Amino acid sequence: MKRKYLARMFDIAGAERVDILTLEDAFNDVHDGEFDVVLLRVEAQDSVDFWWEKHAAQGIGDNTYPADVNTIGMRLGKLQKASDDEYEARSQLYFDSAKAVNSTLRQTPYFTFFERELNARALEVEQDLEMLIASRYEYPPSTEKHFSSAPYANSISYARASKFWPVKESYPQTAAFLTVQNATNCAGFTMWDYLPASLGEVDEFSALYDKDKDRALAFLGQYSSIEINPSEGDLCVFNCRKMHGIKTCNTLRKTIGSFFIKEDGWRMFG
Q1: DSSP summary character for residue 120
Q2: Between 199-211 and 213-220, two packed helices, what is the crossing angle to 10 degrees?
Q3: Stretch 208-228: mean pLDDT, rounded?
Q4: Which of 29-38, 82-91, 208-217, 221-230 has the lowest mean pLDDT?
Q5: Cα 51 to Cα 33: distance, rounded to the nearest angstrom
Q6: Contacts by 2-7 with C-beta closer than 8 Å and gap 24+?
Q7: How deeply is 237 buried, as exposed, middle or buried, from its count of CB atoms within 10 A (0-12, 13-18, 19+)?
Q8: Residue 7: helix, strand or coil by DSSP?
Q9: β-strand 244-246 against 189-192: which pairing, if any?
């Protein structure tokens, strides 16, 4: 029998509920649009520290957000933003490395949790081409006024090298991250009821944000929003297709996260 967890469910319209849910219940509620965010209390602080340490013990380097650097030389987001020439040069390295790294990630408490509670498997986009299962994120202290980096939206279909990119279908996409260490200002994230249609649309927003943050945030201000503040030990499940941003952290914040699509069961990648 699947475990049930204390859950807080939110939607941008303002509804909030408390319930006891399985992990699959939470994912289905977000996937089906019943809620935009579900927070599940999955572990105590000493346990999530162990999850982090076991992840590190498998040889996975720190991912300092948004530096786009880890042991395989790039993150999925960087590969999605690559030009045609860059994609051809880097993609084989990414997929070969991801497959090798995944063989060790499958031994971590993080992956076995999703395997056990969600029957999740690594996303294989073509035969023998696996996406990396998960990433550790470190958000260093920031002096930015509002967000640690530009608000963003995620989709496995987004890619600049569209003629080479192996995922052509636009899926409803869900994200989940476990908060291992919170900043002392309890920096959470904001989600807006804005669902960009393409990577180009996200790029336009990011360029505006880099040029004029106040104007970019005024643009987002026309949409309804919610602010979510996960605690250490909370698993945050949310609709990552909607624009969202991590609030500015005043001390180090650490999470482990993945994305998920539902295709013959749940597939995870990070």
Answers
A1: -
A2: 130
A3: 96
A4: 82-91
A5: 29
A6: 2/117, 3/117, 5/40, 5/41, 5/42, 5/235, 6/40, 6/41, 7/38, 7/39, 7/40, 7/41
A7: buried
A8: strand
A9: antiparallel
